[in-house]
Model the fold of this input.
Amino acid sequence: MNFKNKIKITVNGKQMQIFPKYSLKSLITKLNMPINKIAIELNKKIIDKKRISKIQLKKDDKVEIVHFIGGG
Done:
């Protein structure tokens, strides 16, 4: 895999390398997270999940994903 063309982002505190113009939706899919059970923050701003396919990640973006788990 050619790492020269990749950019670095941070996801939940861990660095990750992705290709430029990678969408937020692609990231969520790659991480295998159920979209209806998560909250997403990009660079300290809450993201409306209806827009995730339109948001392209950029170098040094910081993504925080919170996964909701039911219990009692």
Q: What stands out?
A: The domain at 7-67 is CATH 3.10.20.30 (Ubiquitin-like (UB roll)). The longest strand covers residues 62-67.
